[in-house]
């Protein structure tokens, strides 16, 4: 049974790294504010008594600095909260490991059949499944039903021999009146072996070493 999923985007920054960054920013702000006050004090001490600086200018400058300080501290707080949510979501994604993910992606073939989920154009009168190896070379082209029902690709060449182990990609081409009206990657199933957080996204590492973003996964199922 296939379960549709919607995956969150997960930040990669750890809570420890965020705390160190936040502490550094706070320290820098305190140092800058102290320097700012020293500059104001020096400005007041050496101002021309015949043309004193307007007190409202002091108040305005202090207010502007305070606003910047509060904005930076608020941003640090939001980052820390986001990191905490990221750790929680990564824990929930641990349950995905061992499942088979469905997505439009290349997949590693080791001799075992691969489930392909085509989605041809409904108005097509002819549909082809095109398979390419890791170099982009076409290794198979065959007609398939005008249907979204999954099919099993067993990886045989024209002589009936099993194709070599490699990463293969699948494309569905839809034709109407001998004219191609749609060409798009087909979704396939592959087993998840690991989940990693990188650059604000969760990468699912698949059997064979291929990777896909969790947000690209449209379904999960128990291994067949």
Record keyword descriptors for this entry.
224 residues; alpha+beta; Immunoglobulin-like; 2 domains; seven-stranded antiparallel sheet; five-stranded antiparallel sheet; 2 helices; 31% helix
Protein architecture, described:
By secondary structure, this protein is α+β, with helices and mostly antiparallel strands. It has two domains: 15-95, no CATH class; 108-188, Immunoglobulin-like (Sandwich). The protein is 31% helix and 32% strand. Strand 9 and strand 10 (201-206) form a beta hairpin. The protein starts with 14 loop residues before the first helix and ends with a strand. 16% of the residues are buried. Mean pLDDT is 79; it is low at 6-19.
Mean pLDDT: 79
The secondary structure category is alpha+beta
Tally of alpha and pi helices: 2
* Spatial separation of the terminal alpha carbons: 10 Å
State the order of secondary-structure elements, H for helix, E for strand. HHEEEEEEEEEEEE
Q: Give the overall silhouette.
A: elongated
Largest sheet: 7 strands, antiparallel
Residues in helices, as a percent range: 25-40%
Low-confidence stretches: 6-19
What is the β-strand count? Answer: 12
- How large is the radius of gyration? 29 Å
Strand percentage: 25-35%
Task: Give the secondary structure arrangement, pairings included.
Blueprint: H1 15-45, H2 55-93, E1 100-104, E2 107-109, E3 114-117, E4 126-132, E5 138-144, E6 151-153, E7 166-176, E8 179-185, E9 187-198, E10 201-206, E11 211-213, E12 219-221
Antiparallel strand pairs: 1-9, 1-12, 2-7, 3-6, 3-9, 4-5, 4-7, 7-8, 9-10, 10-11
Helix pairs in contact: 1-2
